[in-house]
Amino acid sequence: MIENVSKIKAEIETAKNILEKRQNKIPPMCQRITVSVSSLMNHYNRILSLCEIIYELETRCDPAGTIQELVMLRENQKGLTKQIKDLEEELTQLEGVLH
């Protein structure tokens, strides 16, 4: 994930450099679009930094992945409990039909 973030950051920096070089050559109407793209890139950078923070929290706070495993087990348990209830209801309906 960090490698992808680094690649994306490099692409963003390249795009910023290209925009800065071309800024003087762009007509005023198109400069507004460039400003919009620039603000979108700022939002994108914020999202990337949040992704990095989340990744750091995951790796530092739960390096073994035990919390994630517990959450997955809990979700599996909920799903299995629902399946049991559904099967019990189906069995009850079939017993009613048979009697």
Radius of gyration: 26 Å
- Quote the distance from N terminus to C terminus: 59 Å
Largest sheet: none
| SS-based class | mainly alpha
Separate helix tally: 3
- Find the count of extended strands (DSSP E, 2+ residues): 0
Q: What proportion of the residues is helical, as a percent range?
A: over 70%
Overall mean confidence score, pLDDT: 77
Beta-strand content estimate: under 5%
Order of helices and strands: HHH
Oligomer class = single chain
Spans of at least 5 consecutive residues whose pLDDT stays below 50 are: none
Shape category = elongated
Description:
The chain is an all-alpha fold and 99 residues long. 89% of the residues lie in helices and 0% in strands. It is built from three helices and no strands. The chain has helices at residues 2-22, 28-61, 66-98. It is elongated. It starts with a helix and ends with a helix.
What is this structure's SSE topology?
Layout: H1 2-22, H2 28-61, H3 66-98
Helix pairs in contact: 1-2
